[in-house]
């Protein structure tokens, strides 16, 4: 592959990761604000959404789990943006946080499917974003110079 094209692939992947994480960030911030203000969310796509969002699994102590998601997505957005500008340390940390997000997503999907027997559209959006971020990370890891 010509050097110019080869150098643009990581830039594209980091930019895509930043854009994806901004979607996850918006979703997580919305859920956090709604949770903290005490509003009850209604999901159009999933009838059991309120069952998920009102379960004991929505908090870690007094903190809504969506707040941790917002922090993770903000961190991912920041690191992906810095990595796109060539900061190698940001790329290394990005390769640490996305697997942690992936593991958390698998756990939360397990809870929805096998413990609560209900799904939340907002949670599934977050899961989709995290799975796509994991795919982008895999593409970056395949590249030897990423």
How many individual helices? 5
What kind of oligomer do you see? single chain
Largest sheet: number of strands, sense, barrel closure? 2 strands, antiparallel
Strands of the widest sheet, in order across it, are 1-2
Q: What's the number of extended β-strand segments?
A: 2
CATH topology: de novo design (two linked rop proteins)
Low-confidence stretches: 1-6
Q: Number of folding domains?
A: 1
Question: Can you give the helix content as a percent range?
Answer: over 70%
Structural class: mainly alpha
The residue-averaged pLDDT reads 89
Beta-strand proportion: under 5%
CATH fourth-tier homologous superfamily: VKOR domain
How far is it from the N-terminal to the C-terminal residue, by CA? 15 Å
Rg, Å, rounded: 17 Å
The first-level CATH class is given as: Mainly Alpha
List the helices and strands in order.
Answer: HHEEHHH
- CATH architecture grouping: Up-down Bundle
Q: What general outline do the C-alpha atoms trace?
A: elongated
Overview of the molecule:
With 146 residues, the protein is mostly helical. It has one domain: Up-down Bundle (de novo design (two linked rop proteins)). It is 76% helix and 3% strand. The chain has a two-stranded antiparallel ribbon. Helix 1 runs antiparallel to helix 3 and helix 4 packs antiparallel against helix 5. The longest helix has 35 residues. The two termini are 15 Å apart. The N terminus is likely disordered.
